[in-house]
Specification:
heterodimer, A: 174 residues, 6 helices, B: 100 residues, mainly alpha, Helix Hairpins
């Protein structure tokens, strides 16, 4: 076993364990913190795959901004845990059966259809990283310039939408 | 050298866990977090593919997915806050009527 493989196995164990912890913990705040750990692990995977910019964006946007927003909302609503009141008793077993079916289908496809797609090349070295970053930004700002600008409009629309949704209703007739 | 199939299998496992979360949890916030987990699993697969074919297109697509996820979270959490204001609960089983 090479060092890469050992690192991959340990990290994937952490990723799966934190995803399970997110699913199973009763308290929503613990779920959010488990998810932060999961996002950070995925960021390390991006580094291993030679995508340093995506790894940093993952940490700042996902683990930073998005999860902080989640924690704010959980604490604002005081919705750490729900009372145990099961309205649909058949829902949980059915969900279990369906998700096991999904997992079996996916593994079946991997075993029967997937041919070896090749190896991940070794993670980029430090000097190589700036090169890859330069190349990626050239591509982003030449070939994908219009989608990039559309993204800024999308973020603006989301901002306006969030403000409109949460603002207090003003009285129209005074 | 890690075969890319390992990354794809890990991505499938994380995606399935996200689906399980959407199906079994009743807390709207945790359902939302599970959706984020699924987006992340798809991103991981895309970065792995882009690293194998030695092209940056996959990474640029992941960049756009992250931007869209940020917008989605802003609007989605605003909706959840608004639902909490009217229903006093974020249990998805309580949201059974069309009229607020």
């Amino acid at each position: 076993m090479t060092l890469d493989l050992i690192l991959f196995l340990i990290l994937s164990l952490i990723a799966i364990a934190t995803a399970l912890g997110m699913l199973l913990s009763r308290n929503a705040i613990y779920s959010a913190l488990f998810l932060v750990l999961n996002f950070t692990t995925v960021a390390v995977f991006y580094l291993l795959l030679g995508a340093p910019f995506i790894a940093m964006a993952q940490i700042t946007v996902y683990a930073g901004a998005i999860m902080v927003l989640f924690l704010f909302v959980i604490m604002l609503l005081g919705a750490e845990s729900l009372p145990k009141a099961e309205v649909l008793p058949w829902q949980r077993p059915l969900a279990g059966i369906l998700s096991v079916a999904l997992a079996v289908e996916a593994t079946f496809l991997f075993i029967t259809r997937a041919r070896p797609l090749g190896n991940i090349v070794a993670p980029a070295e430090a000097a190589n990283m700036t090169d890859s970053l330069r190349e990626m930004s050239m591509m982003l700002f030449n070939q994908y310039l219009l989608p990039f600008e559309v993204t800024s409009v999308l973020l603006l629309v989301a901002m306006v939408g969030a403000i409109v949704l949460t603002r207090r209703e003003r009285r129209v007739h005074q | 050298m890690v075969p890319i199939n390992y990354y794809i299998i890990l991505s499938a496992i994380l995606f399935t866990l996200g689906v399980v979360g959407v199906l079994i949890r009743r807390n709207a916030l945790i359902i939302f977090m599970s959706v984020e987990l699924m987006l992340n699993a798809a991103n991981l697969a895309m970065v792995a593919f882009s690293s194998v074919i030695q092209s940056f297109s996959g990474q640029i697509f992941v960049f756009f997915v992250i931007a869209v996820a940020a917008a989605e979270v802003a609007v989605g959490l605003a909706l959840i806050v608004e639902i909490f204001k009217t229903k006093r609960s974020i249990d998805v089983d309580q949201m059974s009527s069309l009229k607020g």
